[in-house]
Each structure stands twice: as C-alpha cells, then as structure tokens.
What does this fold into?
Amino acid sequence: MRRLTEVSSNTVCKIKWMLGLPDETDQELRDCQIRQGSEICVIQNTGRGMIIRSGARRIAMDAEIAGRICV
It folds into this structure.
C-alpha cells in the first residue's frame, strides 16, 4: 500500500483508504463517485498536484490531499 502521491502518471490503481480528508474535498470526491474501492487512473502527477480519472470524470487535487489517499 502506498500514497497516491507516489503513483506515477498513466497508472491504474484501486483506492484502499482515504484518511482525514476535509469535508469539502470528501464531498467533491463522492460527487465524482470516487471512494474506497474505486478504481482510478492517474493522468498526471507533477509532484505538487495531480489529475485523476474515475470513469468519465476527472478531478485535480493538490499533493496534500492526494497524500491522504492510499492505494
């Protein structure tokens, strides 16, 4: 198990844990149907932020939030 920030671009992985996310972020992820057990694709990982995809939806997040998600 590793943090989402450690995953390279163009990698498909499954979310195992989402630890201590702020309420707004947690709600936004749930609205995009991203939760524990979801399969996501890391489109871009710049080190300071990420773009991930789940199904047809994409979401951008900073490294602090991505570091709280374990895959």
Summary: The first strand starts at residue 11 and ends at 14. The radius of gyration is 10 Å. The chain has a mean pLDDT of 92. The beta strands are 11-14, 17-18, 39-45, 49-54, 57-62, 69-70.
